[in-house]
């Protein structure tokens, strides 16, 4: 009698030689894959734990400066070059792949207050405490030559910052007022003031290239239009802003680093209320730089740490610190979105990974597929309490940790007091003011 | 194919067959202490030992390298060469065992009414539950959610999880004691047979009975195949039914086979159309067309895996081991929103802040020009949106019955007064 039953030929399922790949027949019927949610959850938990295990962001420390690093500039055409200016007037050009200094020049007597590169990458500008603006060539002098600037401009007052236009041969300096210069001229094309004494930084907008933003010492941020040669509007905050940075992807968004430990992301069209307040630092925020994707930015603070914030969130996703790194003055995010450079006042420039657990170098396709899968799993289960707890956990130095705890207690106390006041007073007499609006004093057009 | 058993001794010994493992190995155990492990497809013997004690149940652990034997006094774990690896004295008087593969847990039911869970990857006892149900001789496992089903002598079947000291569900299934319990591989149907000679099939999602069959001799052992066929051992006859939850009970079973002696256990071979039966004179394997799953997934269970593949699979399985705290009646619960916690957290937040951050602000009508923004028209616009939450919209099906009577009326009705 013929009976039709399952019969399999082992040759169809076992490989012929050791050189062949193993055969892996698949059946995606969910009945054959029970417990899909708990198993995926365990995989997500493992992925989150491994991410913390492999989170080793510190790459290298570039030392060579003989005084604190005051400012940094990125080379627009070369990913491996970075320029830094120190507090003793020295400017160094570094090669990041070899992690060494390729050129040193004594640019100023006194601090190098600002450094910026021209958009073509062939030259750069520096300003210093000796009231000069100097224009240098990017390539060093030939053998036996001396370091000489291409051009020196003497001013009457100290210049505190410089930034170059992203497309035209125009640059802007700030100090007493904001001056816009043409590269060929020795006097500014126009000077923009709005009744304030000293301006600490100026930045050109990379997308709408005729717009400028500046931070002044009387707690305001002023926006200028180069075509009209007039200031556009200003917003007055609670405390002074140290620097600002424009979002390279969104034309109208900029983030300002403030003395009250916060960063404010503004939409320049609606300055009445910031788009987001980023609260995580415990001391004054000194510098901010955007990632080339425009989705995140990095901030350097007087508490000896740097933090990476997403643009749409109020809390940082990452904090980098080392025992050896003291107050961080300047920070930059490289143009390939992978590295962060920070210069601190203990004369070192440190190179960090932007994604702490990322594997650098070329990834084999299987590795890449596994990493993508793990990334997706982490995203899918990110809200589960155990996974959230592990993903959020970061070690903080004792000073920052205790200061943050104290600030939290203070904030809670203030909130409770306000709540009690509201409860025991006439309803409607104390309206709810959103946290965003609390720090803005006024907007002036 | 029938294996006569001269080695089983003179008096009828009762071989028991635990699951033919997902990796096509067969474990045979005789009541007198004879234990044999073999690769069923190539018929090569792995080991054959005599443990010198009564064997009540045997089962493979996560791979074909280890198996557990419940002997008269204690629980022993052996290597596939027959070397004794562990003797677990805390597990005494074990009558039945079930291995939960994705949790690496061995659930054991003892004659004193204790249900114990052993985590074999770390070797710790996860839970000991005093079931207060008397002698636990009937045990089954729901492969879809790792819940253990125990049958009791008062006709109830109780469902257990290692996290809860009380049974999750208690179902009254039979009027006499329960003789056998089996759950199908998708976890939707449970078949039970009792001393009242009835074979009942229940829907496990609603805990409602679906079918009830009267068998002249009650079924002592039940087993579901991968494709839903139910095998019942009634004395010395093995009967197979079609996927019984889907079809009404028919008077004749799909297949039936008479064995030389009474059957003592039966299991289907995974991915093959074969049913293995252990009876008084040995082991018989029966061909059952349509019982096995034809297409296996090599990343889950691969009957043709090499040693290297098995080692890698073992590492991945251990990494994915589900902790016992996640065993619940609904395995997909982790993927759902925990609405209760969300509500609690929201209330705490409202209390702390003093206002509800998620509350929508009051509707403010937009300012219109050309005199359309007078006080009266603003009030009219506000009233349109007022009490929006309290409104009960008429549901769509209510409108359809109005349409039907209209069509049924004759067309000339409209000229009638």
How widely separated are the two ends of chain B? 86 Å
Taking pLDDT < 50 over at least 5 consecutive residues as the criterion, the unreliable ranges of chain B are: 1-15
Beta content of chain B? 35-45%
CATH topology of chain B, which one? Methylamine Dehydrogenase, Chain H
**Overall shape of chain A:** globular
Global structural class of chain A: alpha+beta
Query: Do you know the CATH topology of the domain at 59-353 in chain A?
Result: Methylamine Dehydrogenase, Chain H
Radius of gyration of chain A: 27 Å
Strand tally of chain A: 29
CATH class of the domain at 59-353 in chain A: Mainly Beta
* Total beta strands of chain B: 27
Strand order, sheet with most strands of chain B: 1-27-26-25
Number of helical stretches of at least 4 residues of chain A: 5
CATH superfamily descriptor of the domain at 59-353 in chain A: YVTN repeat-like/Quinoprotein amine dehydrogenase
Domain Sof1-like protein (chain A): 354-440
Main location (chain A): nucleus
Region (Disordered) (chain A): 417-437
Pfam families (chain A): Sof1, WD40
